[in-house]
Amino acid sequence: MAASSSLLLLHKPTCNFHFNSARFRKRVQALEQEAFINNSPVADAGGGIEAVANRLSKWIVAALFGSVLLLRHDGAALWAVIGSVSNSALSVALKHLLNQERPSAATLRSDPGMPSSHAQSISFISVFIVLSVMEWLGTNIISLFLSGLILALGSYFTWLRVSQKLHTTSQVVVGAIVGSVYSTLWYKTWNSLVLEAFTSSFSVQVAVFLVAAASALGFVVYVLLNWFKDDR
């Protein structure tokens, strides 16, 4: 009887040790899982109002741009379509030329990050809309208010690229500067060089229309191949 009691006493700590080890392993696994979730790009950028706004930003900006083009329905609108697509092509070329990596958290994106193509495109469109508004309404309280609202919305959408850890601040700033400058030069090129040739030459009108149509078709194909896939 005494021998049995001694064996039980010797066995009890072993059981407690195995029980504590199992509980410790479960606790470690729980902490590792929690750390993985907290550090994952999905947890950082996959939910919340800002993440939804970031996913919708391209659709909102494209809708605004399309609305302005329909309101204009002139040669400048066709010129803007060509400019928007060429601006996107410039962004792709600069990305591969500079070849700067995105933030480490942007694991779902493999292309370079400098400059931000979203920031460059949004800035191009925002500046074009502002210049169109100032052309239509002149300089007054209404046009200044609308221009400020458009620029604020565009700035917010570009900032989301940083808050969602898809780009660094410098990548977004460079993209915004390039897009704004390119849009201004493209708009002024129309008024100073292309407009006179467009109004006086039927062949120039046909050429601008065909290039704009091809650009628009290429943009639609790009949207179908990429935008819907990115939203899934």
TrEMBL record:
Gene3D superfamilies tied to this protein: Phosphatidic acid phosphatase type 2/haloperoxidase
CDD domains the UniProt entry points to: PAP2_dolichyldiphosphatase
InterPro entries recorded: Dolichyldiphosphatase_PAP2, PAP2/HPO, PAP2/HPO_sf
Keywords: Hydrolase, Membrane, Transmembrane, Transmembrane helix
GO molecular function, one term: hydrolase activity
Membrane topology classification: Multi-pass membrane protein
Name under which the protein is recorded: Lipid phosphate phosphatase epsilon 2
Organism from which the protein derives: Cardamine amara subsp. amara
Biological classification of the source: Eukaryota, Viridiplantae, Streptophyta, Embryophyta, Tracheophyta
